[in-house]
Amino acid sequence: MTEIAEDQDEINRRANEKSAKRKEVRDKILATKTGEKGLLMVHTGKGKGKSTAAFGLALRTLGYGLRVGIVQFVKGAWESGERDALARFDDLVTVKAMGEGFTWETQDRARDIRAAEAAWAEAKAMIEAARQDPAAYGLLVFDELNIVLRYDYLPVAEVVETLQARPEGLHIVVTGRNAPAELVEAADLVTEMNAVKHPFAAGIKAQRGIEF
After folding, report:
1. How confident is the model at residue 66 (pLDDT cuts 50, 70, 90)?
2. N or C: which end of the chain has fewer CB atoms below 10 A?
3. Are residues 28 and 54 in the same domain?
4. Looking at the domain assignment, is residue 210 inside a domain?
5. Structure pTM?
6. What is the secondary structure of 43-54 as a DSSP string?
7. Total structural domains in the chain?
8. Distances in whole angstroms, Cα of residue 204 to Cα of each of 42, 52, 102, 141
9. 68 and 58 in contact (C-beta within 8 Å)?
């Protein structure tokens, strides 16, 4: 037993030394990271969790008492648990649910384009509000904007230019599959959600609190 205890003591000592060295290296790296700016973030990919992660950022932002603006480019016509939850923070959150569903639901391209243009007008208005007053918004979430860009409902070049010209301290997160290359290039942070396994393949339908 004594020998086993001594072996564990040695293992612990070596582990502690390695931890101390890792901390020293990390502290040196962190000391070089002094910049601060409003980030353009993109959540894309075929896996689940793009909007979920964006709303997690919204919740984190609210935790600091900062205002959040949300424009939903597709899901506006759907029941949404996150909208009901965020409505409880109506003094800090502005939600514009502008979408009317996916293209296979509306089956009306002209109508989809009009909805996308109206949503983009709201998004630009939020960006401009933050330009006029930095306290207006700390974070903007443009949910499923990538979807309307994929279908050419909005000009990609104009959208990317507008997002790049955001106020210096404003964070913006864009979600949706198939983010255009121009947006990926312009972004400060890009996360691609990969589909490894999904219950839909096993016949499980979308469920409240999980998908919506």
Report:
1. very high
2. N
3. no
4. no
5. 0.84
6. EESSSS-HHHHH
7. 2
8. 28, 19, 20, 28
9. yes
> Is the CB of residue 127 less than 8 Å from the CB of residue 159?
no
Q: Give Cα separations from 57 to 26, 62, 141 (angstroms).
A: 25, 9, 9
Residues 104 and 17 in one domain: no
User: Strand locations in 18-152, DSSP E?
Assistant: 40-44, 68-72, 93-97, 139-143
- Residue 197: give its domain's CATH number: 3.40.50.300
Burial 129-138 (b: 16+ CB within 10 A, else e): bbeeeeebbb
- Say which amino acid occupies 51: S
Indicate whether 211 belongs to any domain. no
23 and 93 both lie in a single domain: no
* pLDDT tens for each residue of 94-126: 999 987 665 555 678 888 999 999 999 999 999
Cα–Cα distance measured from residue 84 to residue 92, given in angstroms and rounded to the nearest whole number: 14
Write out the residue range of the structural domain in which residue 4 sits: 1-34
Q: Which amino acid is at 121?
A: A
